[in-house]
Amino acid sequence: MKLVRMYTTAVCPFCQRAEMLLKQRGVQEIEKIRIDLDPAQRDLMIEQTGRRTVPQIYIGDTHVGGFDDLAALDRAGELLPLLGAGSS
After folding, report:
1. Tens digits of per-residue pLDDT, 2-15?
2. CA 1 to CA 12: how far, in whole Å?
3. Calpha distance 44→75 (Å, rounded)
4. How far is the first Cα of the chain from the last one, in angstroms, to the nearest whole number?
5. Within a 10 A sphere around the Cβ of 64, how many other Cβ atoms?
6. Which of 1, 5, 16, 71 could cross-link 31 (Cys pair, CB 3.0–4.6 Å)?
7. String of DSSP letters for the chain
């Protein structure tokens, strides 16, 4: 399964929902980058994604977007293949 990286804050309901969905799909570990604790990481997130809101989720090198984008991928049946589920 590919590495999942998520820009997040301490209190973010959409981040919690994204984490829950990812875990339901078999993701065991999520690299969380807390932008509320590190302003430089917030700046980097904005520079990389063009977005200011969290979560911002990467699966491997692919920027997925936020929770709504993640949920849409899941509904379309595209999340598991992107995660590399079932492959090493």
Report:
1. 999 999 999 999 99
2. 25
3. 29
4. 6
5. 22
6. 5
7. ---EEEEE-SS-HHHHHHHHHHHHTT---EEEEETTT-HHHHHHHHHHHS--SS-EEEETTEEEESHHHHHHHHHTT-HHHHHTTT--
